[in-house]
């Protein structure tokens, strides 16, 4: 294979990895902090892309539609955490049933409102060009997605490691009870983190729409990959989610090119190898109390 | 200023605190002694709201606090220095100190106001190593960090659960001095201890606890003279 084509596949893999990162980052930090596996996290992706689609249909323009959609999805996240998840903290079986059930409800809701035929979110016109990269043409929009993903990673890293909010979140992952005894209202922390996680997944949906297409079922595909990333990267860290997402994004994309029938198997093989070497994931801190 | 009346606390069906009543007067240090499993930590956790009592009253500055969530109790001005120190391992020393909620209560006249600077002044070693991870400190220094962290909520009353646990005798002596200095700043202290001599050195009043009840109370000098109590309940 010509190196230029390989290079293109790598860029595609990175773009996909960035979309996965935005989902897995929220999933991982929610898992690490609140001890909850949100199996309905894919619904925020769906919500993001479908709401943006409708707003674009209303001639709102891609960027405004993106912002409005993210805000709405974050609001949905707040409602879900406040009224539903809060009742099942510490009850694992109930959490799985509730969030799994919610993912079906949201998927059906999307079918009901938007129908079952695949739709497409158009690439924003300002980025609807291809760039000449050493002989091959590459869509500028995908480069933009990679850029956004990297900027977001830097921003989240900064927030996590250089701010008091970040310190409070890490302290919460370490020892929630102690944190509350220091005067921190852990409920507010939980709700805010949940909203941020939902917003990130919504952003992933909007940005992913023009690349991945829109259909019900993509939420569960993306959720499975994101769960693998959380396991590979380690719970409760943005850094782990970032590296894990790039890894899974590249393996998935290159796998589809070279061994189309083995792609998913390869992703899981990677997960098993990482777990054998580092049971807590690449950047995991170990089980917490 | 801190008062417990007939407090009963349970873990599921096990009845741990069985009608506990005592109070910590303003500016005083009260020591709570007892063997392993007597219910000392449960007492502290009941006050802090981590294991809320099922019945009974806990009040602070004449306001009821039992039933409030832990963060509200902390914001009322009660600081916790927990058993085992519970330093946040993924935080630096400085971060461990800035995480606690900044308080918005007014300090009473004459009471010391605690902030990062004041804590660093009390424990200069924390300032020297502020960028190190909290868990890289020695046991005694971690104890200072746990105390400093509790002070950052600017409490008027502080709950200390076995601050001498696992420390070398020289360091235990230092802990005793720190407690005395804190008391001199006007703080009220509830000191849970297994170390009989540390407690008797620092406290104004001593409570002895067994099986979830107060079985003896008096001054440190009375306890030092009472060998029967020492043998029966403290294994001295
Ligand atoms: N989470 C829990 N669930 C059930 N029982 C508990 C729990 N924590 C403590 N206990 C029981 O409650 C009793 C009192 O425990 P507590 O921790 O208050 O004792 P303590 O006086 O602090 O002991 P130590 O000196 O060892 O710290 C013990 O019998 C203990 O086994
Ligand atoms: Mg104890």
TrEMBL record, chain A:
Where does the record place it? Cell membrane
Listed Pfam families: BPD_transp_2 (PF02653)
Please give, as recorded in its UniProt entry, the membrane topology of this protein: Multi-pass membrane protein
**Keywords of this protein's UniProt record, alphabetized?**
Amino-acid transport, Cell membrane, Membrane, Transmembrane, Transmembrane helix, Transport
Which GO MF terms does the UniProt record name?
transmembrane transporter activity
Task: Give TM regions.
Answer: 6-29, 36-56, 62-84, 96-114, 140-158, 222-250, 257-277
Q: Name one GO biological process term.
A: amino acid transport
Entry GO CC: plasma membrane
Q: Which InterPro entries match?
A: ABC_transp_permease, BCAA_transport_permease
Q: Which family does it belong to?
A: Belongs to the binding-protein-dependent transport system permease family. LivHM subfamily.
Can you say what this protein is called?
Answer: Amino acid/amide ABC transporter membrane protein 1, HAAT family
Q: Which organism is it from?
A: Brevibacillus centrosporus
């Amino acid at each position: 294979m010509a190196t230029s084509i390989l290079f293109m596949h790598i860029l595609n893999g990175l773009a996909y990895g960035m979309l996965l990162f935005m989902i897995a980052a929220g999933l991982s930090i929610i898992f690490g902090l609140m001890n909850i596996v949100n199996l309905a996290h894919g619904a925020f992706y769906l919500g993001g892309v479908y709401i943006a689609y409708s707003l674009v249909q209303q001639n709102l323009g891609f960027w405004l539609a993106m912002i409005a959609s993210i805000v709405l999805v974050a609001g949905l996240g707040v409602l879900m955490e406040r009224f539903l998840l809060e009742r099942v903290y510490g009850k694992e079986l109930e959490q799985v049933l509730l969030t799994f059930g919610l993912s079906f409800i949201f998927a059906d809701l999307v079918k009901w409102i938007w129908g079952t035929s695949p739709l497409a979110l158009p690439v924003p016109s300002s980025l609807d060009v291809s760039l000449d990269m050493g002989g091959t043409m590459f869509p500028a929009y995908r480069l933009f997605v990679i850029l956004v993903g990297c900027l977001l990673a830097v921003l989240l890293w900064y927030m996590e490691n250089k701010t008091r909010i970040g310190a409070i979140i890490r302290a919460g992952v370490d020892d929630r009870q102690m944190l509350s005894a220091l005067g921190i209202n852990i409920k507010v922390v939980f709700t805010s983190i949940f909203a941020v996680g939902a917003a990130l997944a919504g952003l992933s949906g909007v940005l992913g729409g023009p690349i991945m297409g829109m259909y019900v079922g993509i939420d569960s595909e993306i959720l499975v990959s994101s769960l693998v990333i959380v396991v590979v990267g380690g719970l409760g860290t943005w850094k782990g989610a970032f590296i894990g997402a790039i890894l899974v994004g590249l393996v998935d994309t290159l796998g589809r090119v070279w061994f189309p029938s083995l792609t998913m198997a390869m992703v899981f093989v990677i997960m098993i190898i990482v777990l054998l070497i580092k049971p807590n994931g690449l950047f995991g801190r170990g089980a917490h109390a | 200023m801190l008062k417990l009346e007939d407090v009963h606390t349970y873990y599921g069906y096990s009845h741990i605190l069985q009608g506990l009543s005592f109070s910590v007067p303003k500016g005083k240090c009260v020591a709570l002694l007892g063997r392993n499993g007597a219910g000392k930590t449960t007492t502290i956790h009941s006050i802090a709201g981590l294991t809320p009592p099922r019945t009974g009253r806990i009040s602070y500055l004449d306001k009821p606090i039992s039933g409030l969530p832990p963060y509200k109790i902390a914001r009322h001005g009660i600081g916790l220095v927990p058993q085992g120190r519970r330093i946040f391992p993924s935080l630096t020393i400085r971060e461990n100190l800035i995480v606690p909620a900044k308080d918005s209560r007014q300090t009473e006249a004459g009471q010391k106001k605690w902030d990062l600077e004041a804590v660093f002044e009390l424990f200069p070693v924390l300032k020297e190593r502020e960028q190190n991870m909290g868990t890289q400190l020695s046991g005694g220094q971690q104890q200072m960090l746990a105390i400093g962290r509790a002070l950052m909520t600017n409490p008027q009353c502080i709950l200390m659960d076995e601050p001498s646990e696992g420390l070398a005798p020289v360091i235990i002596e230092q802990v005793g001095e720190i407690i005395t200095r804190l008391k001199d700043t006007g703080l009220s202290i509830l000191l849970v201890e297994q170390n009989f001599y540390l407690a008797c050195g620092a406290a104004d009043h001593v409570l002895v606890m067994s099986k979830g009840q107060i079985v003896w109370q008096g001054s440190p000098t009375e306890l030092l003279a009472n060998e029967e109590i020492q043998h029966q309940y403290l294994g001295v």
